[in-house]
């Protein structure tokens, strides 16, 4: 990867128990429904080179179906090789890198992943259970 | 509304029939998996003042759970008063306006909606079935 880049990620969540008849204007008391993204707390979950911000999700908004993240990877850092039981959409705001994507969900032996260049103002999506890595 | 603004919207979709074992690198032949957002086709669905771009979704990507849209409303235009059976997250990229949101899902008579100012770099989410309008 040649530079820092930013990603927006959207995840489908497992169901959470939130009363269906109430409209939760915000689950965390004191936070407004409409919030300014400036000054949102960042986390790196112990992974060097990562900056993660949850823009909207289960904890802040009581969402049960979708989350929105903003992530920044420093040069040389990468996601793990991973998969998940939800769909994911990426929008690359800055920087460039490589997407590695397994060619099939039901391969019986290891195979070379497909490689795709990613660049500023590009978008791509990851199907459910597709093994992938962003580098 | 005082100015043009742009929104990103994320919708949960009804299930579509896409083979689960194949990883659809793109459902529309000839379109790459990683795509440049510049030059994406716009539509207004016959509504003056609206510009709509589907960044990722069912048709382009075979997504079954989530869509990502970029919308721009010209000054004075607005969404209909509406609701939907999926969650929605907004990120306001430019401009300002007002969000109208019904206070409860099970009201038995009309009531004044809650009003929230929206502004650049703000975010908010709409729960399932909550009646709302962005103005």
UniProtKB/TrEMBL annotation, chains A, B:
Signal peptide start and end residues: 1-20
Record GO biological process: auxin-activated signaling pathway; cytokinesis by cell plate formation; positive regulation of cell division; positive regulation of cell size; positive regulation of DNA endoreduplication; regulation of auxin mediated signaling pathway; unidimensional cell growth
Entry binding sites for Zn(2+): 82, 84, 88, 132
Gene Ontology cellular-component annotations: endoplasmic reticulum lumen
Keyword presence, Transmembrane helix: no
Highest taxon, organism lineage: Eukaryota
Matches recorded under Pfam families: Auxin_BP (PF02041)
Glycosylation site positions: 121
InterPro entries in the cross-refs: Auxin-bd, RmlC-like_jellyroll, RmlC_Cupin_sf
Keyword vocabulary terms for this entry: Auxin signaling pathway, Endoplasmic reticulum, Glycoprotein, Metal-binding, Receptor, Signal, Zinc
Localization, UniProt: Endoplasmic reticulum lumen
GO molecular-function terms, A-Z: auxin binding; metal ion binding
Main location: endoplasmic reticulum
Protein name: Cupin type-1 domain-containing protein
Provenance organism: Amborella trichopoda
Source species taxonomy: Eukaryota, Viridiplantae, Streptophyta, Embryophyta, Tracheophyta
């Amino acid at each position: 990867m040649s530079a820092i880049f930013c990603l927006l990620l959207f995840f489908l969540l497992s169901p959470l128990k939130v009363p269906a008849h109430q409209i939760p204007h915000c689950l965390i008391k004191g936070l407004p429904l409409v919030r300014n993204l400036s000054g949102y707390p960042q986390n790196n979950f112990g992974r060097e080179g990562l900056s993660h911000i949850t823009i909207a999700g289960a904890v802040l908004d009581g969402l049960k179906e979708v989350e929105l993240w903003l992530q920044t990877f420093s040069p040389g850092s990468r996601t793990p090789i991973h998969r998940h039981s939800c769909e994911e959409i990426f929008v690359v705001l800055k920087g460039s890198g490589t997407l590695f994507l397994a060619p099939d969900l039901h391969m019986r032996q290891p195979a070379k992943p497909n490689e795709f260049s990613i660049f500023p103002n590009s978008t791509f999506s990851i199907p459910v259970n597709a093994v992938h890595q962003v580098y």
